[in-house]
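Look over this record before class:
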Amino acid sequence: MVQDFAFKAPDADFVTDGLNENMPNYRVLPNNEEAEHGLLGALLIDNRGLEKISDFLKPHHFFVPAHQRIFTAITTLVERGQTASPVTLKNYFEKDADLGEVGGAEYLADLAANVISIVNIEDYAKTIFDLHIRRELISLGESIVNQSYAHTLDADSNDTIEEAEKKLYELGESGDVKGGFVTLRDSVLIAIEHAEKAYQSEGHVTGVTSGLVDVDKKLGGFQNSDLLILAGRPSMGKTALAVNWAFNAANAYAKSGGKEGGRVAFFSLEMASEQLAGRILSEQSGISGDAIRKGNIKQEDFRRFVEASQRMSQVPLYIDDTPALSIGAVRTRCRRLQRQHGLDMIVIDYLQLLRGNGSKRGQENRVQEVSEITQGLKALAKELSVPVIALSQLSRQVEQREDKRPQLSDLRESGSIEQDADVVMFVYREEYYLSRSEPEPGTDKHMKWQESMERAHSIGECIVAKQRHGPIGGVKMFFDPNLTRFSDLDPNHFGAFPESDY
């Protein structure tokens, strides 16, 4: 039998007044009735004080139930454009049981009469809010203890930790007023700062660099608060391109001392962290990944390994390969990483392997779950003010068309992916499809096929199909399958041609 455990702080205050000395002491939750009296009395005298505190102080922050009801009534009347005073509130509270316990309607007049000053209204409000947070922390501590004692099949210790971190973060953010109006003047100054940054940047990049010149020209870098979707069919190179971008951004940060690029969190729900590291090691050392896996390497290659590993050890790229993560767990881990090491970009490989915050996944509500995930990722991008790149699979209807170039309608399972994303990009390699459709040798079709293969050899394309803040179009890239690396395309490459409209 699981027994609830009452959490006791070692320095808690205990109350014995009015009790038999033989009775055990008990704790009183942190509160300050005098501050609540002062605040409510000041509001009853001058309703304009509500403008200073209504953004963060709510009725449930008060400790005394009667004070919660009084604050609610004051707020309601003021929002209606009426005056809240002991006289106007009297009729509402004449028969109120909670108010009757503290003196009835006359209590309202006492609150207003005993006010010393209305200048301290913000200090009163902050005191009340701080004590509310302390009570919530005590409650959270008790909840963690009780959940730790309880063993269920639906949750393990990691779930308890993630839930605790989530609630702690929400408590920390609940009093931070981030909303409100911003003047046009302030907005223009911020826009000018971004323009100046782009002007001074060598590649005119305002966001986190991808490491590829042509991609940065098209996007201006990965912009803060943006949700970017990188989609494609299997074997197109989605993971390879995302890994290249992530490493390039983190490497630029390391080389520039934080002036360029950014610190990157990479959630690999499909591949193990050592496999991703192997890909990066192959790219940086210039040794084929297949040769590394099979052990077909020479003695001198180890020197290149050592040099590459030394460079990689300085790069702030953090990989989490935990499978089947929920969107809530991703949010919690990103907050933690930002707090501990800093965070400038998030990459998720891939979206369909994430779970919603519900404990179970069903095919019938999968569309709703994907909508929850994309909305959560967009909210995370705005909350942390970082770009979030989420990889996504495309539906099989691409394979059924003669033209294999992907379209927005090919996004799987939910239109919310297209709706919530600020940028939607596709990875497309024509060579992949051509190599699987070789006609009979010696025919005219075969000659045309060979010409097409030569034109498409080692060329990939990043198709920007949606971009809220800029143009759409295709960007050609060079793809090395041996090193699983995308890089800028040499203009002299056979078959290379400029960006195409899409």
